[in-house]
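Moderator note: this is an archived Q&A kept for reference. The question asked for a predicted structure of one protein chain; the sequence and the answer are reproduced below.
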Amino acid sequence: MKAFEELNRTNSTVVEVEGKTLKTIQDPSSSDDGTTYTAPAIDAAGNEYILAWEVIDPEITDESSICNWKKPVGVTLVK
């Protein structure tokens, strides 16, 4: 796993949530029903999260615009 400092907008999805910067450590993947995308993420302190984004339009085939990547609909602290 890359360190927080090594992750950036070219190799991670970076979001600001409640004053914290969270960076994904894997590419987001679609849920089985296709309504959301999820990805594991970390913050600067090394805490782990699961981020979730809602699919805007299931007919969109371009994953770069299928969700509002700047605004996750779910942020769950794992540890």
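Archived answer notes: The mean pLDDT is 93.
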